[in-house]
Amino acid sequence: MDLEAADAQQVGIYGDRGAAQAGSVFEGYAECKGKRKKFIRQYGKGYPKAVEKLQRDWDRMVTFYNFPKEHWVHLRTTNIVESPFSAIRLRTDAAKRFKRVDHATALIWKVVMVVEKSWRRLKGAHLLPDVYEGKRFVDGLPEEEYPLNQKEAA
User: Fold this and answer.
1) How far is residue 148's CA from residue 37's CA, in Å, rounded to a whole number?
2) How far is Cα 39 from Cα 11, in angstroms, rounded to an integer?
Protein backbone atom coordinates (compact mmCIF):
# COMPACT_ATOMS: atom_id res chain seq x y z
CA MET A 1 0.00 0.00 0.00
CA ASP A 2 1.42 3.36 -0.95
CA LEU A 3 1.68 6.31 1.44
CA GLU A 4 -1.31 8.14 -0.06
CA ALA A 5 -3.56 5.10 0.35
CA ALA A 6 -2.35 4.65 3.92
CA ASP A 7 -3.11 8.32 4.63
CA ALA A 8 -6.54 7.94 3.07
CA GLN A 9 -7.35 4.89 5.18
CA GLN A 10 -6.09 6.55 8.32
CA VAL A 11 -8.38 9.54 7.88
CA GLY A 12 -11.32 7.39 6.96
CA ILE A 13 -11.89 7.66 3.21
CA TYR A 14 -12.69 3.97 3.10
CA GLY A 15 -15.31 2.23 5.17
CA ASP A 16 -17.94 3.76 7.41
CA ARG A 17 -15.63 5.97 9.45
CA GLY A 18 -15.04 9.14 7.52
CA ALA A 19 -16.73 11.96 5.76
CA ALA A 20 -15.29 11.08 2.36
CA GLN A 21 -16.79 7.73 1.64
CA ALA A 22 -17.04 9.33 -1.75
CA GLY A 23 -20.35 8.06 -2.85
CA SER A 24 -20.23 4.60 -1.38
CA VAL A 25 -23.44 4.90 0.65
CA PHE A 26 -24.95 8.30 -0.09
CA GLU A 27 -28.41 8.64 -1.57
CA GLY A 28 -27.48 11.17 -4.21
CA TYR A 29 -24.75 13.20 -5.79
CA ALA A 30 -25.61 16.36 -3.84
CA GLU A 31 -25.21 14.60 -0.48
CA CYS A 32 -21.97 13.01 -1.63
CA LYS A 33 -20.63 16.36 -2.81
CA GLY A 34 -21.46 17.89 0.57
CA LYS A 35 -19.55 15.13 2.35
CA ARG A 36 -16.59 15.75 0.06
CA LYS A 37 -16.54 19.45 1.02
CA LYS A 38 -16.69 18.52 4.70
CA PHE A 39 -13.82 16.08 4.25
CA ILE A 40 -11.67 18.66 2.45
CA ARG A 41 -12.26 21.23 5.21
CA GLN A 42 -11.57 18.72 7.96
CA TYR A 43 -8.50 16.96 6.54
CA GLY A 44 -7.11 19.33 3.91
CA LYS A 45 -4.20 20.61 6.00
CA GLY A 46 -3.23 17.35 7.69
CA TYR A 47 -3.52 15.08 4.67
CA PRO A 48 -3.04 17.17 1.54
CA LYS A 49 -2.11 14.20 -0.68
CA ALA A 50 -5.27 12.30 0.25
CA VAL A 51 -7.38 15.39 -0.46
CA GLU A 52 -5.59 15.99 -3.75
CA LYS A 53 -6.18 12.38 -4.80
CA LEU A 54 -9.86 12.64 -3.86
CA GLN A 55 -10.26 15.81 -5.93
CA ARG A 56 -8.34 14.41 -8.90
CA ASP A 57 -10.35 11.17 -9.02
CA TRP A 58 -13.70 12.67 -8.03
CA ASP A 59 -15.45 12.38 -11.40
CA ARG A 60 -14.51 8.72 -11.75
CA MET A 61 -15.55 7.98 -8.18
CA VAL A 62 -19.10 9.31 -8.60
CA THR A 63 -19.83 8.28 -12.19
CA PHE A 64 -22.11 5.51 -10.96
CA TYR A 65 -24.73 8.13 -10.01
CA ASN A 66 -25.41 8.43 -13.76
CA PHE A 67 -26.62 4.82 -13.92
CA PRO A 68 -29.67 3.04 -12.50
CA LYS A 69 -29.55 2.68 -8.72
CA GLU A 70 -29.96 -1.09 -9.05
CA HIS A 71 -26.64 -1.23 -10.93
CA TRP A 72 -24.63 0.74 -8.35
CA VAL A 73 -23.54 -2.31 -6.37
CA HIS A 74 -22.08 -3.85 -9.54
CA LEU A 75 -20.42 -0.65 -10.75
CA ARG A 76 -18.66 0.05 -7.46
CA THR A 77 -16.92 -3.31 -7.25
CA THR A 78 -13.22 -3.63 -7.96
CA ASN A 79 -13.36 -7.37 -8.51
CA ILE A 80 -15.34 -7.41 -11.73
CA VAL A 81 -12.62 -8.99 -13.86
CA GLU A 82 -10.51 -10.78 -11.27
CA SER A 83 -13.20 -13.11 -9.93
CA PRO A 84 -14.17 -14.87 -13.18
CA PHE A 85 -10.58 -15.48 -14.17
CA SER A 86 -9.36 -16.88 -10.85
CA ALA A 87 -10.83 -20.28 -11.75
CA ILE A 88 -9.22 -20.14 -15.19
CA ARG A 89 -5.85 -19.19 -13.74
CA LEU A 90 -6.09 -22.07 -11.28
CA ARG A 91 -6.50 -24.61 -14.08
CA THR A 92 -4.05 -23.12 -16.56
CA ASP A 93 -1.34 -22.67 -13.91
CA ALA A 94 -1.73 -26.32 -12.98
CA ALA A 95 -1.31 -27.41 -16.59
CA LYS A 96 1.71 -25.09 -16.97
CA ARG A 97 1.96 -25.50 -20.70
CA PHE A 98 -0.29 -26.69 -23.47
CA LYS A 99 1.17 -28.25 -26.57
CA ARG A 100 -1.51 -26.66 -28.76
CA VAL A 101 -3.24 -23.33 -28.45
CA ASP A 102 -6.64 -24.86 -29.27
CA HIS A 103 -6.32 -27.15 -26.22
CA ALA A 104 -5.77 -24.15 -23.96
CA THR A 105 -8.61 -22.27 -25.61
CA ALA A 106 -10.97 -25.23 -25.21
CA LEU A 107 -10.08 -25.61 -21.53
CA ILE A 108 -10.50 -21.91 -20.81
CA TRP A 109 -13.85 -21.81 -22.63
CA LYS A 110 -15.16 -24.85 -20.76
CA VAL A 111 -14.06 -23.45 -17.40
CA VAL A 112 -15.83 -20.14 -18.13
CA MET A 113 -19.00 -22.02 -19.07
CA VAL A 114 -18.94 -23.96 -15.78
CA VAL A 115 -17.96 -21.03 -13.57
CA GLU A 116 -20.57 -18.65 -15.01
CA LYS A 117 -23.31 -20.74 -13.41
CA SER A 118 -22.21 -19.46 -10.00
CA TRP A 119 -22.00 -15.78 -10.99
CA ARG A 120 -24.42 -13.40 -9.39
CA ARG A 121 -27.19 -12.08 -11.58
CA LEU A 122 -27.18 -8.42 -12.45
CA LYS A 123 -29.64 -6.44 -10.38
CA GLY A 124 -31.92 -4.35 -12.52
CA ALA A 125 -31.20 -6.33 -15.69
CA HIS A 126 -34.46 -4.99 -17.17
CA LEU A 127 -32.80 -1.53 -17.24
CA LEU A 128 -29.91 -2.61 -19.47
CA PRO A 129 -31.70 -1.68 -22.73
CA ASP A 130 -32.22 1.85 -21.36
CA VAL A 131 -28.55 2.15 -20.46
CA TYR A 132 -27.51 0.77 -23.84
CA GLU A 133 -29.73 3.27 -25.64
CA GLY A 134 -28.06 6.11 -23.74
CA LYS A 135 -30.99 7.03 -21.51
CA ARG A 136 -29.85 9.50 -18.86
CA PHE A 137 -30.09 8.74 -15.14
CA VAL A 138 -29.69 11.21 -12.29
CA ASP A 139 -28.96 9.80 -8.82
CA GLY A 140 -30.05 6.39 -10.04
CA LEU A 141 -33.45 7.48 -11.37
CA PRO A 142 -34.44 7.98 -15.00
CA GLU A 143 -34.03 11.67 -15.77
CA GLU A 144 -37.74 12.20 -16.48
CA GLU A 145 -38.65 10.73 -13.06
CA TYR A 146 -36.09 12.78 -11.15
CA PRO A 147 -37.75 15.52 -9.05
CA LEU A 148 -37.12 18.96 -10.53
CA ASN A 149 -36.24 20.58 -7.21
CA GLN A 150 -33.50 17.99 -6.60
CA LYS A 151 -32.15 18.34 -10.14
CA GLU A 152 -31.48 22.03 -9.56
CA ALA A 153 -29.76 21.32 -6.22
CA ALA A 154 -27.39 18.81 -7.84
Assistant:
1) 24
2) 9
